Sequence to fold (975 residues):
Amino acid sequence: MTSSSRGYQRVDSSGDGGSLLMEEEGDNPHEALLHRNNDDYASTYHHVGVEYDSYEELERHEMDDRVTEIPEGFHRRQRRNLIYGDDVATDEELRVLRREALFGEEVTRAGLGRAEYYEDSHLIHSCDKSGHEDIDDESDDESKDEDEEEEETGIRKFAKLVLPHVALVLLTCTYTVIGALIFYSVEQPHEQMMKEQQLKLIYTRQNEFVDDLIRLAAGNETKRYEWESLAERHMHNMSDQLFVAFEKYFLTSNEVKKNAATETWTFSSSIFFAVTVVTTIGYGNPVPVTNIGRIWCILFSLLGIPLTLVTIADLGKFLSEHLVWLYGNYLKLKYLILSRHRKERREHVCEHCHSHGMGHDMNIEEKRIPAFLVLAILIVYTAFGGVLMSKLEPWSFFTSFYWSFITMTTVGFGDLMPRRDGYMYIILLYIILGLAITTMCIDLVGVQYIRKIHYFGRKIQDARSALAVVGGKVVLVSELYANLMQKRARNMSREAFIVENLYVSKHIIPFIPTDIRCIRYIDQTADAATISTSSSAIDMQSCRFCHSRYSLNRAFK
Amino acid sequence: MHPRGKFLAGHLSAFCITPTTTALISRNHSDWAHLQLLRRTPSSDAGNMNQIHFGTASARRRNAMILENNSGDEDAPKQGFLANLRLALFHLVLIFATVAYIIAGAYLFTKIEHQAELDRYQSYHTIYRNFINNLYQSSNRSVADVENLIDTFTSINFRAFKEGLKPTDFLVPQETSRWSMISAIFFTTTVLTSIGYGNLIPISTGGKIFCVGYAIFGIPLTLVTIADLAKFVADMLIMDPTEDPKTGRQLLVLVFLLGYMTISACVYTILEPMWSFLDSFYFCLVSLLTVGFGDLHPVGTVEYMLCSIVFIFIGLILTTLAVDVSGSVGIAKMHSIGRGFDAMKMLNALRVRKSEFVAKGAVSLSAAARVAGRRLDGQQPHQPRWFAYVPKDALTIPYIDESANVSSRTTTTTHTSI
Fold:
């Protein structure tokens, strides 16, 4: 719980990755590009260090550094005066006045303004470099959208949110049904013709077999060798013919016995086949065998697979958002339970932050979904599929689980096929939901690992592709900023904005040690005399949000 | 490693770390010395806002140390081969891990399924011989009895076919199994890429259990490897880093994928005697989209099968590239339909208004958000506070103008970690 108590604990990469990264050296093809973008904050960390030609230059540089030191101190003391009145010691005031006389107010104010401009322009520049086109019509449309949104009611907003996704799902279903109809109309007549032809061939060979046996029996031949050779030859022929009928034309044992061909390409099985095509499962039983059927299968796949994958990915994103929301609530509940045992160590909030609506009970945690939780969800859903199929089909639980796993991973061997009758739609619903859950797992866990692995040992070209680890996910800074704006627009609460803002800004400022709360400012030496030196007092001196210092007896709990 | 160095490395993992920084981190310098290296050139004043520089003898000594280290490291820079090798090492290890996983899985599948397959051959051959004996003993029976026996023979055949056997497997005694090493490698490749032809599948319970466990760990490994290689190809396509991702590149990737399919279809038409061009193209499309019907699949020598495996992997890299270039944008746009804001419009609005902020001299994150969002009018969001780093021993470092009072500072400080 140490990370939760600090609130802003950042998720670092693994130690091994860090070591290997530090070992990385040398020849960077994008170094010129980095130097070209001097305004880019990424190049702030690229500089190898300061080089001084002589001690005189060193002295001048040290004098220049004071410009940024005095504004900070002056600004902090002014804020302190506003909050705590005239409690500041006299010698501190004299020190401030002396520095002000030395460098002048203009330098102080200019330095502060320049620093603030520099910090804020970084984020805007990083968004600017994301390469989005600057069109005047866009701003007009944006203004118009804002005017329309203010007039919309809650119901219309909800409809606007839901309808495009429902339309996408309906479009995919319609596309699948139309494809199934075409497969059925093309393949069904051809299938009947070929099956009847195969049955005719099989029964021709069977009749030859029977006639030869009867002829031998009528001749009263008693030689066993002649019997066996005749039987083997006919059985070989029959087996070969049966295998062709089984493998290519999907005849079954019952059809051969009754000499009656049943329909494999029914409308239901056509829908099942179309779904297994667009979801890339591909059982292969049945398959189109005519040229027209195969050409249509090629076109159907090229258009249908992207459409279906986008739809399932869309559903998967909704599922992942709900999972993140549920996990966040779980963390809040856990924090509430555990916080009862840590009342004595609650953090304090200074007056300034408290007046802006950030109380001490505000909890900020990074919601990183653990990988084993996502894997457990996947296995539980597969087991549920095993139970479902073992009830619908005469399969054992392990066979059903095996089929469910092969289907969820879209391997699709085709050795186990469910019946395609009344229960088919339940099976199709299970398959599509399972694929959405698989997409959710990839979205939550897989993407960050792919990005980390790909960018391992490499340098980032510019700020457009700069990465930030937020909430356990590796995202582009431009994407992060866009999502931040979306969140702020969606949630009108001021608290959310402030927290998100602080959260983002924490990743841009340079290194902050973990014991920042214990490090005193230079101008706080006088306060130390009035505060006890116990560790708890020092611990409670800093505000958890802005990390500013204040006196203990003025804390707000 | 120094404890601070871990945080430094973790924080800067997305940015460049130079040999000088590495050398200094390995020498256990203090945090202040680290940040000295990360400072910008003296000409940029804004870059110094987070640094407090002390004009004392101790500070001068530290700077001298830094200068010595800088001059020392620059004499022997490592370039060229070593850097490229270190860059590619992890990715090569990932590829070798995938290949080793495929080969090891193939070996285990042959171990599990080979004996089961031979047992299955033997049992069906025994059934076949018993059938011939029954047929001989019924030589004096009627036509109806003979037809019933033939129906029984048909049932035996179909049951054998469902278990993956062919007529030649059980009509004549067999000593070898179809689960050879190259067949197993082809099978494991199609499992891990989720193609799944289904022409050669595990039948025994042990084989199925192993297949489930094998796929749980193998499919993510293979997908990560293919996605990693696809990103390298995507990086090669980007000539200019500042170029916008346009529709032309998406079409280029799709045309490249279809071209690869067409060329491969021509090759398969030549190599497979029974396949026409349409059959070959059909097979390539069904394979590269990982549908994998299995009605058409390559059968041949070891070299031919290995070339087919390489074809599948290269094709999947191109397919993943197409998904990465075209699909991700489509999915993101589709998902954000109906949301509060379109991210593109937000970014464009910010860029349009950036010039106004610069002119007014009030460029700040909250100000930009307020104007772009137009929803917090009249509200004063809290300004983020930027503060400078102060080292642990700040109290022991005197100012230039306090040198006369150094003797009066005798108080000790207590620093306790949280």
User: Anything to note?
Assistant: Chain B has a mean pLDDT of 64. DSSP finds 14 helices and no strands in chain B. The longest helix of chain B spans residues 81-137.
